[in-house]
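User: Continuing from earlier, I have the next pair ready.

Assistant: Great, send them over.

User: Here they are, in order.

Assistant: Folding the first of the pair now:
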Amino acid sequence: MSEVSSDRALDGPAAASGRRSPTANELRAWRAFIETSEAAKQSVALRLQAESGLSTGDYAVMVALYDQPEHSMRSSQLAEAISWERSRLSHHLARMERRGLVSRHTAAGDKRGAEIRLTAEGAHSYRRASSPHLHAIRDIFAAPLSAVQLNVLEDAMRSLAAHLESLRS
């Protein structure tokens, strides 16, 4: 089978209906993307947990809150900012609240809304975790890639993000 025909070997009956299956090259790239990104995320997460006691979920919440005035935002905005379902966020915030990292308050002017605030302990934990976390990202993700590879990867991810955004519209 030629390279062109082997790239189309996965099309099958769907191709006749106008839908085209991924080529073998596209599937290899997809698999490399999935396997490598999962392995990199897991390695960074393990280092974050080992060095700071924080999960990647904790850190995502803390980053979003830390960047806000008074380290505070409405729970609905926080869920959107970190791309989590509200129920997932609510359960996670309960665990963080028990550990003294965040506090919940009734939103000003809206008794139904909740305002999430990073506590002093939470801000301290975030600052303490940030430097080791950034070093882990450099060691695990950035160091093995050249500047050119990082630029190409960033460009590819921006294209993919723009495409995904267009699918939501």
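And the other member of the pair:
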Amino acid sequence: MKDAQLGAPEASGASKTNPAPQQGRGKRHSRFGPGLIIAASFIGPGTITTSIVTGASYGFTLAWAVVFSIIATIVLQEMSGRLGIATRLSLGEALRTVFTSKLARGIMVVLVVAAIGIGGASYAGGDTTGTALALNTVTGLDMRMLIVILILLIGALLWTGSYKAIEVVLTIMVVILGGIFLLTALAVRPPVGEMLAGMFIPTVPSGAMLTTIALIGTTVVPYNLFLQSSLVQEKWGRELDPRASIRESRVDTAVSISVGGLITLAVMATAMGAMYLNGLAAETGEDLTRALEPLLGDAAPWVFAAGLFAAGFTSAVAGPLGAAYAISGTLGRSTDLRSTPARAVWIGILVVGGLIAVTGINPVQIIIIAQAANGLLLPIIAIFLMIVMNSKQLMGAYRNGPVANVFGWIICLIVTGLSGYQLGDLAGLWG
């Protein structure tokens, strides 16, 4: 897709002194990065569990929801990346420039901080627990000790403030994830025809509406929109031609997030082949492990534990990272990972999440609050992003074009409807 289809035409006064091809050759070996971190962020224990339960309960019937969520994520994350490269602002900082009214800005700040802060802490607890559980399954070591060790490891990685180090670690984890679940999907040999039908023919079986929303909600994550706009600035510096950087960012976003979606579909296909076609039910990942034992033998627990560990660790790192960028930028504070405000945010998220995990506090009520907050926040942030991306004053030649606006507003409409349904369910309106 050419630049003119998503953004506005090139500015007439653009500098041509640094040809894009030369920059491309110098950076081609490290083109991928921010997109892989976004993929690593949304593939967590919750996504793995939701995909397993969905595949075991409905086969590939709801695969279209994953396909939609991947398209929606690519469209929204592309805008966020273009914003960061073109303006050198994070989404939080950009929102502060759009909302000049103190009341409107105050409401926006409260929504972002509350939703991402509460959600980040509660999900950090779940991600850390899931990662520790994977290690406990194969080592038998004490869960609390494993949780503390993981918190310290994640804290040490984030404390470096090194984008490159974080990128390398999470990229390795995504490769492990992809390899494990793609191989298990091939091993169970699910029917290709049913898979293709499920991916491209939208249907919602009776009682599956909330599962459908869950599949979309685990992929289209509000804080990832803040995360992307900051990560691209780390990846593509000021010295590079913005147009060349935006093109590379688009490739990174489309390919990386598609890989994330492929992993989700592979998990669903594995559950479909191993459980749904054999009439087996699933409530946890352990159910899938038992179903894979006839195929993988004694290696089944190790294989699944490795996949769950990779999924949990990536989300446990990306969650606090995204929260630090989102909250710091929205509050008008430095988003540099080495800065005190950013460190205060991710340390707070890790500590609260660790306490939830270590003490064994049932996080159900906290997660319900987080789901409600995120359900409200996603359409709002998506709409805010569309407003920012159509600001001629802020975006200039890089503002949205007709194609991006059509896709963007359709996505906003759909996620608003889904969020309304989810909030209604949480309030008990649907019985």
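Worth noting for the second one:
The two ends are 45 Å apart (CA to CA). The first helix runs from residue 3 to 6.
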